[in-house]
Amino acid sequence: MKHLSSTELRQMYLDFFEEKGHKIEKSASLVPVEDPSLLWVNSGVATMKKYFDGTIKPENPRIASSQKSIRTNDIENVGVTARHHTLFEMLGNFSIGDYFKKEAIIWAWEFLTDEKWMALDPDKLYVTIYPDDEEAGRIWKEEVGLDASHIVKEEGNFWDIGEGPCGPNSEIFYDRGEAFNDLPEGHEENYPGGENERWLEIWNLVFSQFNHKPNDVYDPLPNKNIDTGMGLERMLSILQDAPTNFETDLFMPIIERVETISGKSYKDTAESKVSFKVIADHVRALSFAISDGALPSNEGRGYVLRRLLRRSVMHGRRLSIEKPFLSELVPVVASIMKEHYPEVDNAVEFISKVILNEEERFLETLAAGLDKVNELVSTLKEADQTVLSGKDVFQLYDTFGFPVELTEEVVSEQNLTINYPEFEEEMTKQKERARAARQAEGSMAVQSSLLSDLKIKSEFTGYTEDEEVSKLNRIIKDEAFVDSVSSGDSVKLIFSASPFYPEKGGQVGDSGLILDQNSTVLAEVNTVKSGPDGQPVHVASVRQTLAVDQEYKLVIDKKRRRLIERNHTATHLLHQALKDVLGDHANQAGSLVEENHLRFDFTHFGQVTDDELKQMEQIVNEKIQENLIVETVETTLEKAKELGAMALFGEKYGKNVRVVMIDDFSKELCGGTHVKSTAEIGLFKITSEAGIGAGTRRITALTSEGAYQWMEEQLRVLNEASRLMKVQSVKEVPSRIEGLQKELKELNQANESLHSRLANAQAEEVFTNIQEVGQVTFISEEIKAKDMNQLRQLSDKWKQQGYSDVLVLGLRNEEKVNLIVSMNQKAVGLGLKAGDLIKAVSPYVNGGGGGRPDFAQAGGKKPEGLDDALAAVSDWINGQLG
């Protein structure tokens, strides 16, 4: 067995499969592109779904990669077990309808055991297979020569995630020896494939050979696929003879840096070792996710990052680290990974800034949360209660970000306890909400061979032409090829050449007409999609007969295309303006370019101010007025990068690319259509800007006709406002509004004063209606106050004047009721509590409430029950005194 570094192992794996004819694909972003089913890219196969389900046809059906992945479904186990991680790398080789079981198994064995590669001892390797997969069993025995005693049949060896490709799988295990045996002999899990520490799973070979269809029908796939995954971290632990994944060169430099910062040793205690592991794991995930455009926030991916960071900070406190420190670990992560992931190294300054900013905010949150905890504790003590509500603990955790363990610490110091079942109930509700908010992870479309097997090419001529005479090669109706269609049919059409742009890169597909040689309209093209080989697939409504192998005239909607081109070119100007104003971290994270407007999503971890938006808008309009030439160059990807062209977020590029250059201002890789000069755009206007998720914001804007019409509408509204305000010029509208606001404020103050005088006048009468039960005097009356605020003011006045021992006031407000209860020290001393009284009378008004011993309040939805509520006060006092 060879002793390899993480870099050497990763490269060896990729070199091996490159020798086997695989295309080495760069690791995709952790943030999924055009896949709402995933919160994160969570496996190697997650990035291959488009190939597996036939949506896109790969250049090479053999692909290999080392894919960075994030999983957070069992975050609590990180640091506790030997191999749980949030961020990990999955080494994978994939076959898209090419080789199958025999090659996958033989190559896996060769890579693991051959002296040229990893040189593992074959006697230490075991495999599991699906019991019904006789073919895999035969290959392992006959082709590989593996002894039957090293082959275990497992019912669970069938990879199936719902509808879509699925099939049996074969897992490979490494025997780490008796020293790692953590189970007694005869234990049901003590075997290769069981849940134990001795036999470590290192590779999973999935033989994707069935289509899982509705009603649990399993049909053979048109194209069988191979999906394999080897965990880099656990394989490395074997090669470096490490007890756990954390003692490898992927983690130890980070742990050593934490030792320096904390002054603690990794080997001090088992508890401190967990904290070191959690920090090392989480800072890797944070660094990679932020480099891929995700940013901390209160929802989605951002919430995951915020939770990882806060867990790290709390574990830092356990190591006596009270200051921000995680940003100091980012350069260490970058140094370890830069050979294969230079993007982290290139963004060290930005990643560190984001993490430091978030750490500082969290430390402030901890201080604010501590104040809130102390306030809750004080209220409990005043009420002679000893149990802190689980709902309050959850609010501290969820809203304030205050860790539960810190709440426990403060509460226990005051000899109080927490209602844990209530807290767990709130946590369960949150998890259910999160689960309902997104689709099941790992979904995949049912594979169709109709387009994936189509060998016919189709040339897109729309960069230079608006019309094209072309032969109709294929007609698809009801997911089948047909030779002809007639009026009323909805179809998909593929021509030998087409000027229609297929929807991709954020630009919508073209619309237009299909004509015969006499210019008679035969079909209307509603939109155009992109086929697996990039062919324009025209989605059309047929008006007259169409037949394959006939020539037709294809004409796009020219006006619509010109409007789309203006909007698309404007997104390029906006992208550069964003970077000029906000910084280089502001990257495109998606876009939509239609004829009516453009939508541009970008990464940014703060608010965008009105002044910044104004600057961006001004820059774009300046570039439009300068009438800059828009030039498109076709070149290689390498040459494009040398030119300084920006590659868009999450896009995949082939060897040859198109570079759209707007003078020296903007250079981007883009396959869309554009204007010839910026002056054609005419005008640019930002209409809205807002946050849409985890560190992602969205700008909506208009150009040319749309911008002009929008401004005309704004002017119309302003003119109407000036007419209603009876001013001579629209310039006078702001000052007129200020005047009206001042008048309104004065009227409100006068109204408030009048209500207060009326309430006081009522009070003089109400406070004389004093009743008595035993030695306790009380007032229980309905009052015509404005709102709850006036009820509280009356309560304050009652307290100052000492009219009685108990005060109960009720207020009807349309369909609602409000109640307040106040008690003086004499009443409280006799054992009467305002909170208990409010709970006793509020059910009469179909409400509820609570409060301190001397003051409580409640709301209700049954106004007709107020008289009964007020009448019940006497009986309640009598019952308490009796």
UniProtKB/TrEMBL annotation:
- Name the GO cellular-component terms: cytosol
Q: Name one GO biological process term.
A: alanyl-tRNA aminoacylation
EC assignment = 6.1.1.7
Which one of the record's GO molecular function terms can you name? Answer: transferase activity
Q: Which residues form the Alanyl-transfer RNA synthetases family profile domain?
A: 4-713
UniProt xrefs under InterPro entries: aa-tRNA-synth_II/BPL/LPL, Ala-tRNA-lgiase_IIc, Ala-tRNA-ligase_IIc_anticod-bd, Ala-tRNA-synth_IIc_core, Ala-tRNA-synth_IIc_N, Ala-tRNA_ligase, Ala_tRNA_ligase_euk/bac, DHHA1_dom
Residues folding into a coiled coil are 730-764
* Protein's cellular compartments: Cytoplasm
User: Keywords of this protein's UniProt record, alphabetized?
Assistant: Aminoacyl-tRNA synthetase, ATP-binding, Coiled coil, Cytoplasm, Ligase, Metal-binding, Nucleotide-binding, Protein biosynthesis, RNA-binding, tRNA-binding, Zinc
Q: Which cofactor does it need?
A: Zn(2+)
Specify whether Metal-binding is a keyword of the entry: yes
> What SUPFAM superfamilies does the record point to?
Class II aaRS and biotin synthetases (SSF55681), Putative anticodon-binding domain of alanyl-tRNA synthetase (AlaRS) (SSF101353), ThrRS/AlaRS common domain (SSF55186), Translation proteins (SSF50447)
Pfam families from the UniProt entry: DHHA1, tRNA-synt_2c, tRNA_SAD
| Highest taxon of source | Bacteria
Binding note for cofactor: Binds 1 zinc ion per subunit.
Listed binding positions for Zn(2+) are H568, H572, C670, H674
The answer to whether keyword tRNA-binding applies is: yes
Q: Which reaction does it catalyse?
A: tRNA(Ala) + L-alanine + ATP = L-alanyl-tRNA(Ala) + AMP + diphosphate
Q: What is its main location?
A: cytoplasm
The free-text domain note is: Consists of three domains; the N-terminal catalytic domain, the editing domain and the C-terminal C-Ala domain. The editing domain removes incorrectly charged amino acids, while the C-Ala domain, along with tRNA(Ala), serves as a bridge to cooperatively bring together the editing and aminoacylation centers thus stimulating deacylation of misacylated tRNAs.
Chain's role: Catalyzes the attachment of alanine to tRNA(Ala) in a two-step reaction: alanine is first activated by ATP to form Ala-AMP and then transferred to the acceptor end of tRNA(Ala). Also edits incorrectly charged Ser-tRNA(Ala) and Gly-tRNA(Ala) via its editing domain.
Q: Which family does it belong to?
A: Belongs to the class-II aminoacyl-tRNA synthetase family.
The protein in question is named Alanine--tRNA ligase
Gene that this sequence comes from? alaS
